[in-house]
Write a structure and sequence with these properties.
This protein is 61% helix and 0% strand. It is mainly α. The protein has one domain: TorD-like. Helix 1 crosses helix 2 and helix 7 runs antiparallel to helix 8. It is globular, with a radius of gyration of 17 Å. The C terminus is likely disordered.
Length: 231
């Protein structure tokens, strides 16, 4: 596969996963309809996710049952909830994620506030980097494109790939709705596939949740003190 085509397929894959794990709303795009072809081009199978029922009421109920209404719900969707106990490490991770976004000119969204380490936001950033790579290949050549690819590798290894497989495993165990069970399977497969493609190390499926849950970051999300989603 040509590198531009590969990058565009990765854009569609990560964009669809971002939509799948975003809280459902009436503004959902048609990215999921384009997913099977893009996934197939990358050696993945997304037909079950594309075919799963997507009625808004059903998705909203399933989303709330899986992720809940707070940061530390049944299956936390935030990177900062996984791994070592919170403290300076937690603040560093949030700052580092935001630093990646800022380095590419992405700022907070006032219309869609979300913590920057939410799984949907991190998937959306991977889609953005893949699209930047495709555009750079077309307009500037491999050297500029390699910068985007290197950023994708680092972000996947240090952030999305660090906790995404553990999140996917939790969702698979809890999800009763076919949509989210399929989304979790594809998320895991996409992380493993992209890690191999980019030369990154994917995190484990059994990464534990942090012990000191529900402290200052819950309040910060509610009051808006933490950065919002780049969008």
């Amino acid at each position: 596969m040509e590198r531009v085509e590969e990058s565009l397929s990765r854009t569609a894959l990560w964009g669809a996963l971002a939509e799948a794990f975003r809280r459902p709303d009436e503004e959902s795009s048609e990215l999921l309809d384009e997913l099977p072809g893009a996934a197939k081009a990358l050696g993945l199978d997304a037909r079950d996710l594309a075919a799963a029922p997507r009625d808004m009421a059903g998705r909203c109920a399933a989303y709330d049952a899986i992720f809940g209404h707070v940061v530390r719900g049944p299956c936390p969707a935030y990177e900062g909830e996984y791994g070592e106990p919170k403290g300076h490490r937690f603040a560093h991770e949030i700052g580092d994620v935001t630093g990646f976004y800022n380095a590419f000119g992405l700022g907070p969204s006032r219309g869609h506030p979300e913590r920057p380490d939410h799984i949907s936001v991190e998937c959306e950033f991977m889609a953005f980097l893949a699209l930047k790579e495709a555009c750079a290949l077309d307009a500037h050549g491999a050297e500029k494109a390699d910068l985007c690819r290197d950023a994708s590798r680092k972000f996947l290894e240090e952030h999305l790939g660090r906790f995404g497989r553990a999140l996917a495993a939790r969702v698979r165990r809890r999800a009763k709705a076919p949509f989210y069970a399929a989304a979790a399977r594809l998320l895991d497969a996409a992380i493993v596939s992209d890690a191999s493609r980019l030369g990154a190390v994917a995190g484990p499926e059994d990464l534990p949740l942090r012990e000191d849950a529900g402290t200052t970051d819950d309040a910060c999300v509610r009051c808006g003190a933490l950065p919002e989603t780049p969008r």
